[in-house]
Structures are given as structure tokens and as C-alpha cells.
Amino acid sequence: MNDLINNTSNRMQKSITALIDAFKKIRTGRANPSILDDVKVDYYGNLTPINQTSNITVEEGRSLAISPWDKSLIPEIEKAIMGADLGLNPSTSGDLIRVNMPVLTEETRQQYIKQARAEAENARISIRNIRRDSNQNAKDSESSGEISQDDLRRLEDSIQKETDKYISIVDSELSKKEEDLIEI
């Protein structure tokens, strides 16, 4: 019985982790190195994340400074950032690549908020699907005689509590992301 609840909780936590990762990809007006997490550079024939080839720091809140460990990678890093379709334009000065974050217009803010809400809804759907699967497993256990009807009710109540907990986490994360997007 506890195994089912733990499994349900673990699966729901993975949905939250996926949501947070999706939120990192939605750009806000502030510079954050995590926006480059999925950008890969051709590093001696292997596609390697930028953060494994360079130091990435935030300068003055609105720009990123990328300092490659291997200076010959500068053109590759620029090309990778431009090709990542993030709406960012890197500029090189010596051994440093600077990426200025464009100021978000009201239209882009609304578009990003809409995207964040869609990601949150996908996470909610995922959590509800996990609840459905767990409830079905519990009913299967009851019909096979492994647990009683009372145990089934308690199990379903516990599954619902987990679902409510994780849905509220989704709502909380969405609120934080919307606040970030609304800030100037």
C-alpha cells in the first residue's frame, strides 16, 4: 500500500521537475544562465552543453557573460546561441561573449505567460493521469483480493491528497513564473 503511494508521489515529483525545467526555457527580462542549458556546442565532434565548455555569469542583471575555457570555441558558441532560436544575439569582445537580454515587450510578456500557463496545464494533466493510473492499480489490488474495500478507500484518499499537493505546487510555480514575467 505504501509502495503505491511512494510510487505515485515519485512520479508526480517528476512532473514538477519537468515543469520547472520547461519554465527555465521561458525567457524573462532578467538574465539567467539556465536559459542556455539546452544550447549545445560542437566541441571536437561532440555536441556538448555550453555550461560544460565555459563559465557563464550574469552581468548587470540584463546580460550574460560567457567565457569559454577553449578560446577556439568562441565562433562555435556564437553559432550555437544564434541557432537555438532563443531570440538572443551574442556579441564577442576579445575572449568574452556577451549576450544581452532584450527588454520584453508587453506582447512578448503575454505570449510567454500563455506559454507558461500551457506548460502548467500539461503538468496538471500529467499529475491527474498518474492519479488515474494509481487509482486503477489500487482497484486492481482490491479486485484480486490483496486489499479490502476499506483499504481501497483509504488508498484512494491518500492518492487524492498527493494529487492535491502536487497540483498546488504547479499553481505556486506558475504564480512565481508569471510574477517574473510581469516584472520590468
TrEMBL record:
GO BP of this protein: cytoplasmic translational termination
InterPro entries from the UniProt entry: Ribosome_recyc_fac (IPR002661), Ribosome_recyc_fac_dom (IPR023584), RRF_sf (IPR036191)
Matching Gene3D superfamilies: 3.30.1360.40, Ribosome-recycling factor (1.10.132.20)
Superkingdom, natural source: Bacteria
Localization: Cytoplasm
Gene Ontology molecular function: any one: ribosomal large subunit binding
Region (Disordered): 131-155
Keywords linked to the UniProt accession: Cytoplasm, Protein biosynthesis
Biased composition (Basic and acidic residues): 131-142
Chief site of localization: cytoplasm
Domain Ribosome recycling factor residue range list: 21-181
Gene Ontology cellular-component terms listed: cytosol
Purpose of the protein: Responsible for the release of ribosomes from messenger RNA at the termination of protein biosynthesis. May increase the efficiency of translation by recycling ribosomes from one round of translation to another.
Family (UniProt): Belongs to the RRF family.
UniProt protein name: Ribosome-recycling factor
Species: SAR86 cluster bacterium SAR86B
